[in-house]
């Protein structure tokens, strides 16, 4: 009868056919039964639940006729409707009416209302209903407990959820698949994937068959932590059980493949998804875009964003934030800002993470103004800074050594109720250690142990590194401390300790730690190896280095370009080409990739040693293998020819690189200028600078240093001063050797007052004078004092200045050259007073002569 009514009513034009259906049903019922004999059901509750749209539950009270006796099932449907529509107060009113007027609520009534309160996040009232259930002599069932467990897990109250689980099992209730899946989801959300796997195994052992959601929950969490192999094992078990995959499972697996660096496999998985006729959603594309961006392929991410828009899939803020993060990590801040502006144009407002990413990027790029403007913009949008944004500010202040300001910001953050997380504490501790404020660092460490954040292995590594810098090398105590905190050392822990021992020169302990690292099941990585290689090489232990590399080869490590450079630098001390080539061949035999970087290191080593013929042979071998030279290759060859005084050949290489389409950089011209300067070909050097400017290259501080030095060698003081003024105007800070050239020019011209002013200017600019600076000035003052036309008072004055400089030089630990000592002896040693001159020298200078 109901079906016929439904068909009839739905053919009418009324926007609410179900209202008319109810009205007709009620009228027909009244006609067929007297009031005193009214039926117990107006109509079956399941049909009511099926046909009533949840958005229309506000009309249900219209059909509560006072003379119609209804069952508890009827009320349960009404309460469910109100809860679904968000009208929880109306549902509570119905419950109260049931308690006073009947029918008495049953466990389903309470479960339904409890679920309603859980959905709106009112766990306190939901828990109170549990107490009420017991007061009315009803027994909570599996659904009652599962409802609360699910709500606690979603509210990140895992401990409460587990207590509920224990309570239900003590009462003899058997958890069902939904209960187990809720617990697994809570554990996974708290990062306790191993415990979630244990729950999954327990579920299977007690005979509860996992459903799609059970598998999807665990696959998603395993994928997120990069354990993609285990995730695929679970996928295989889904196939065996005949449980189909949906977009959620495919998306999770794709995400895991990206995190494992397997971009091609992730793309293949996406194609399988399409072949299965599944429709990718925003979350699927978000995983694809985030995966490509994190692997550095941001352009691919933008193409996928364009594909989303073409398919009318609306991107969300997470999609855009992945692209912003990708560009920022590559240092392409303008592109990242363009993406954020595009978001705003499309009415997708950036969140705190987007702003935080850009603020952090601009701080790292030393563009504090833009970073602060972005922070103000974020605040103007009503967004409050979070721990990530605070950490960006702390790190910026830390980089510039402004830990007092960082500490003030940290305290202000806490005063406003924003609790520091483990990352914030770790950044502060690291900053204090780097600023040499160990007591403040230890205070932060103490505070961390007292707070709920606690230590993780990263924070502990920072503590170890700080203690090692203070000279505390008790590695055993560190291991004990980590064990007490339930932490296991990672590769970074051992790298920190190995590096500290290496810097101390304690290679024996460093190598012991390497063996200990293996005992923890940790494989030494390229960082570990390169630390040891560099230190062994610095100590001249080439044989031990090669032994270490052979051991590492067994563990699957192959030499990297960093290893290659360190070993060749060490072997070059022998200045024997055959030794260098032998070491190089050994490294290639160990799996060193013979690419452009490797060839550049070998060519650069030979060129630096002036072995230009050997370098040329290697260059020809490289070209013969089809490996094209780059700017590094050509600069090395030009440098080799210049230091070998083959300027024509150096310029020939310069011409060759232009022919090959390789554009010279500022360093190329500086190398050539240095060669011309050494050969005193200053006119040619000036022409080369003009050529450099014509190519759009701007001279840097090194360029000016070279030019000043060149003009100084030929005594062109006027041009030296002109170039010096030009570099100061452009904001360049001259180096000590540049000042020495200028001071020497003035000293030769007997203009010692100007020479003295230059030294004072050096000190104002924070440029430290070296031994040569003092040698030039001391000799200059003494030579000036020997002029016959000078008055005695001036001579004494000049000699006093020379003596003052000599004492200052001695206090700073500089050793004067023989020319300076000879100058002093000649000036002071008058006839018959050579013994007195020697006595003065012995008094002023008590160190060995250079």
From TrEMBL:
Positions of transmembrane segments: none
PPR repeat ranges, renumbered to this chain: 71-105, 106-140, 141-175, 176-210, 211-245, 246-280, 281-315, 316-350, 351-385, 386-420, 421-451, 456-489, 490-524, 525-559, 595-629, 630-664, 665-699, 700-734, 735-769
Name by which UniProt lists this protein: Pentatricopeptide repeat-containing protein
InterPro entries: PPR_rpt, TPR-like_helical_dom_sf
Organism from which the protein derives: Vitis rotundifolia
SUPFAM superfamilies: TPR-like (SSF48452)
Protein keywords: Repeat
Family note: Belongs to the PPR family. P subfamily.
Any single Pfam family the record assigns to this protein: PPR_2
């Amino acid at each position: 009868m109901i079906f016929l009514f439904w068909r009839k009513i739905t053919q009418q034009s009324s926007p609410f056919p179900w209202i008319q259906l109810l009205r007709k049903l009620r009228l027909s019922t009244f006609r067929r039964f007297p009031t005193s004999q009214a039926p117990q059901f107006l109509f079956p509750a399941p049909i009511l639940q099926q046909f009533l749209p949840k958005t229309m539950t506000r009309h249900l009270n219209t059909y509560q006729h006072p003379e119609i006796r209804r069952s508890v099932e009827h009320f349960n449907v009404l309460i469910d409707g109100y809860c679904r529509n968000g009208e929880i107060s109306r549902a509570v009113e119905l419950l109260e009416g049931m308690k006073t007027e009947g029918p008495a609520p049953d466990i389903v009534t309470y479960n339904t209302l409890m679920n309603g309160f859980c959905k709106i996040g009112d766990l306190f009232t939901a828990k109170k209903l549990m107490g009420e259930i017991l007061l009315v002599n009803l027994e909570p069932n599996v659904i009652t407990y599962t409802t609360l467990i699910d709500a606690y897990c979603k509210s990140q109250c895992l401990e409460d959820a587990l207590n509920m689980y224990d309570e239900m099992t003590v009462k003899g209730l058997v958890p069902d698949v939904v209960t187990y899946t809720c617990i697994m989801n809570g554990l996974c959300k708290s990062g306790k994937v191993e415990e979630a796997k244990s729950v999954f195994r327990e579920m299977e052992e007690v005979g509860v068959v996992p459903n799609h959601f059970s598998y999807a929950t665990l696959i998603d969490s395993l994928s997120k932590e990069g354990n993609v192999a285990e995730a695929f094992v679970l996928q295989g078990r889904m196939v065996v059980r005949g449980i189909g995959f949906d977009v959620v499972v495919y998306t999770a697996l794709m995400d895991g493949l990206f995190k494992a660096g397997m971009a091609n496999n992730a793309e293949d998985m996406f194609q399988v998804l399409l072949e299965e006729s599944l429709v990718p959603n925003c979350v699927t594309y978000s995983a694809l875009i985030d995966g490509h961006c994190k692997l550095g392929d941001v352009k691919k991410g933008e193409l996928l964003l364009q594909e989303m828009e073409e398919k009318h899939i609306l991107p969300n803020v997470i999609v855009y934030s992945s692209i912003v993060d990708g560009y920022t990590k590559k240092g392409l801040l303008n592109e990242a800002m363009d993406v954020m502006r595009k978001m705003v144009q499309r009415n997708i407002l950036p969140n705190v993470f987007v702003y935080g990413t850009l603020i952090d990027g601009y701080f790292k790029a030393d563009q504090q103004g833009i970073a602060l403007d972005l922070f103000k913009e974020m605040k103007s949008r009503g967004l409050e800074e979070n721990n990530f944004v605070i950490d960006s500010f702390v790190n910026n202040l830390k980089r510039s050594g402004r830990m007092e300001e960082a500490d003030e910001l940290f305290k202000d953050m806490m005063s406003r109720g924003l609790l520091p997380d483990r990352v914030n504490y770790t950044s502060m501790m690291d900053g204090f250690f780097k600023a040499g404020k160990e007591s403040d660092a230890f205070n932060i460490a103490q505070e961390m142990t007292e707070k709920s954040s606690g230590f993780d292995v990263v924070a502990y590594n920072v503590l170890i590194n700080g203690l090692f810098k203070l000279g505390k090398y008790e590695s055993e105590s560190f291991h004990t401390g980590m064990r007490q905190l339930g932490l296991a050392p990672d590769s970074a822990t051992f790298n920190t300790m190995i590096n500290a021992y290496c810097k101390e020169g304690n290679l024996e302990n460093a190598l012991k730690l390497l063996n200990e690292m293996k005992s923890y099941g940790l494989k030494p990585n390229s960082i570990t190896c390169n630390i040891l290689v560099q230190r062994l090489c610095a100590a001249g232990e080439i044989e031990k280095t090669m032994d270490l590399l052979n051991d590492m080869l067994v563990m699957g490590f192959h030499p990297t370009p960093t290893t290659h450079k360190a070993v060749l630098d060490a072997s070059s001390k022998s200045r024997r080409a055959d030794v260098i080539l032998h070491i190089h061949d050994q490294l290639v035999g160990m799996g060193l990739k013979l690419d452009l970087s490797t060839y550049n290191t070998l060519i650069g080593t030979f060129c630096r040693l002036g072995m230009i013929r050997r370098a040329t042979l290697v260059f020809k071998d490289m070209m013969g293998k089809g490996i094209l030279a780059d700017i590094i290759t050509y600069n090395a060859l030009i440098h080799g020819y210049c230091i070998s005084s083959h300027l024509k050949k150096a310029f020939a290489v310069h011409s060759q690189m232009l022919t090959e389409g390789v554009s010279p950089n500022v360093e190329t011209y500086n190398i050539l200028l240095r060669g011309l300067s050494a050969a005193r070909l200053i006119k040619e050097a000036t022409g080369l600078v003009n050529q450099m400017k014509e190519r759009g290259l701007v001279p840097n501080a090194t360029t000016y240093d070279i030019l000043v030095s060149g003009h100084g060698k030929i005594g062109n003081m006027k041009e030296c001063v002109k170039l010096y003024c030009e570099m100061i105007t452009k904001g360049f800070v001259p180096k000590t050797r540049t000042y020495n050239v200028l001071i020497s020019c003035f000293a030769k011209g007997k203009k010692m007052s100007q020479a003295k002013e230059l030294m004072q200017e050096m000190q104002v600019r924070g440029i430290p004078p070296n031994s040569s600076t003092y040698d030039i000035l001391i000799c200059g003052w003494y030579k000036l004092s020997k002029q016959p036309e000078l008055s005695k008072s001036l001579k004494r004055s000049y000699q006093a200045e020379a003596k003052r400089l000599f004492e200052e030089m001695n206090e700073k630990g500089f050793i004067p050259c023989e020319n300076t000592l000879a100058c002093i002896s000649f000036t002071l040693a008058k006839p018959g007073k050579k013994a007195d001159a020697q006595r003065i020298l012995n008094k002023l200078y008590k160190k060995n002569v250079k």
